[in-house]
């Protein structure tokens, strides 16, 4: 039996690191930036108006008040996007819009609300200080400086910033193409009718959802019968276009362990990990393609995914911290755990406003077939290898899902 940590590091080594690809910004959301990005332009690129109003020289409107306004001739318009901007003659005004370049000779903008809105002549009823409503070139970003650091997870704001400094593609760790294969002669695609002895397939659905949430491209082969020739014929032709294969089922100690029987001799090793659920595990390479084989019980599949596959895929994608958040929580009931194994129990974690630690209520028993309780859970309770009993009201560690 190997430890959880040992298998985690094997899976991580097998999955490796993804290559870097340059992708259009629209395809980068959620991915990790592979290199520092410098600004090609300053932000703003030029002094521009923060308001719709009139560009003036503050000296010309210094005496303007509500009761005694100043009237200036308006010599033209500066809409946003105007590239040939006239200079302001002293003693006049230019009508200017938000985002438009401030003309030479102007040192401030009077909001249209403080004027009569005139087109030929404008009556200004408030003075402005020099600099009012002008957004200075470079006050946000200076050209040539690094705006996004390697390792940044690209969300909407980071992608917007990249575009604002003139970038249309970014170097990111390329998401893997993952092939999910669920095995079991008993498995049936819903909604086909079930015969006695058959069950509806659910593991591939969980794995696809979990992998897509990490940004992976996923293809599925569902309900492969427990027959080595059938398994090979279904999966082998797909290996060429695949970066990672994740299988479910067929890895334990029985007579029809299709995944084990098909892959044990070709570079994938199998064994037991000291955890519950998720004991039987395997990983390795098949024709050079990384393979992680998960046990078939539905809870075992999702727990194994959380413990082994998710951190390995996130690390491959360049995430500095690929782990779930761990928090302490007070148990609402006593739990028991097998000595020598790390147990992961489903739980529902809550924390009241103002409380330091939260509370966790176990959901369902330890059985790895109890899918309904998994669907009610928002965390995994971790009971370490030494723990045989965690009493009610004791503090345990939970992983927030
Ligand atoms: N003699 C032993 N028997 C078993 C051991 C053991 O150590 N000695 N380990 C048990 C544990 S723990 C697990 S976990 C399972 C793992 O078995 P397999 O990986 O070979 O998985 P299967 O036998 O194919 O299936 C197990 C179980 O899960 C259901 N299943 C499988 N695939 C799906 C799916 N895609 N959707 C829904 N349900 C699925 C399947 O019908 C079985 O009930 O082995 C124990 N046995
Ligand atoms: O280790 Mo198995 O995954 O409990 O059912
Ligand atoms: Mg089996």
Automatic annotation (TrEMBL):
Gene3D superfamilies given in the database record: MoaB/Mog-like domain, MoeA, C-terminal, domain IV, Molybdopterin biosynthesis moea protein, domain 2, Molybdopterin biosynthesis moea protein, domain 3
GO molecular function: metal ion binding; molybdopterin molybdotransferase activity
A single BP term in Gene Ontology: Mo-molybdopterin cofactor biosynthetic process
Chain segments annotated as coiled-coil in the UniProt record: none
Pfam entry (one): MoeA_N
Residue ranges of domain MoaB/Mog in the record: 179-315
Catalytic activity line of the entry: adenylyl-molybdopterin + molybdate = Mo-molybdopterin + AMP + H(+)
Pathway(s) this gene product operates in, as recorded in its UniProt entry: Cofactor biosynthesis; molybdopterin biosynthesis
A single Gene Ontology CC term: cytosol
Class of enzymatic activity (EC top level): transferase
Function text: Catalyzes the insertion of molybdate into adenylated molybdopterin with the concomitant release of AMP.
Family: Belongs to the MoeA family.
Protein name as it appears in the record: Molybdopterin molybdenumtransferase
């Amino acid at each position: 039996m190997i430890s959880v940590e040992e298998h985690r590091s094997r899976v991580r080594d097998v999955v490796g690191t993804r290559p870097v690809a340059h992708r259009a910004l629209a395809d980068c959301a959620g991915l990790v930036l592979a290199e520092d990005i410098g600004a090609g332009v300053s932000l703003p690129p030029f002094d521009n108006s923060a308001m719709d109003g009139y560009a003036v020289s503050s000296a010309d409107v210094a005496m303007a008040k509500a009761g005694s306004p100043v009237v200036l001739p308006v010599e033209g318009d500066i809409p946003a996007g105007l590239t040939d901007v006239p200079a302001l003659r002293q003693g006049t005004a230019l009508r200017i819009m938000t985002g438009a370049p401030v003309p030479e000779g102007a040192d401030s903008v009077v909001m249209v609300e403080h004027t009569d809105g005139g087109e030929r002549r404008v009556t200004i009823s408030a003075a402005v200080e020099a600099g009012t409503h002008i957004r200075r070139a470079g006050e946000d970003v200076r050209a040539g400086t690094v705006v996004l650091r390697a390792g940044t997870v690209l969300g909407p704001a980071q992608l917007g910033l990249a575009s604002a400094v003139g970038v249309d593609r970014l170097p990111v760790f390329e998401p893997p193409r993952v092939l999910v294969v669920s095995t079991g002669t008993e498995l049936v695609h819903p909604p086909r009718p079930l015969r006695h002895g058959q069950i509806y397939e659910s593991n591939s659905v969980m794995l696809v959802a979990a992998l897509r949430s990490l940004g992976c491209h996923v293809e599925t082969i569902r309900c492969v019968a427990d027959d080595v020739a059938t398994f090979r014929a279904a999966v082998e032709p797909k290996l060429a276009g695949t970066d990672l294969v994740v299988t479910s089922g067929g890895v334990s100690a029985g007579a029809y362990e299709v995944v084990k029987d098909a892959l044990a001799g070709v570079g994938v090793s199998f064994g037991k990990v000291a955890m519950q659920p998720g004991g039987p595990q395997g990983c390795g390479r098949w024709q050079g393609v990384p393979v992680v084989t998960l046990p078939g019980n539905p809870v075992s599949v999702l727990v194994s995914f959380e413990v082994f596959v998710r951190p390995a895929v996130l690390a491959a994608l360049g995430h500095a911290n690929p782990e779930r958040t761990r928090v302490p929580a007070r148990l609402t009931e006593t739990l028991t755990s097998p000595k020598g194994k790390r147990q992961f129990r489903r739980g529902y974690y809550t924390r009241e406003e103002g409380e330091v630690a939260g509370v966790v209520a176990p959901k369902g028993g330890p059985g790895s077939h109890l899918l309904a309780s998994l669907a009610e859970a928002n965390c995994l309770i971790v009971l370490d290898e030494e723990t045989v009993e965690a009493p009610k009201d004791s503090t345990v560690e939970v992983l927030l899902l």
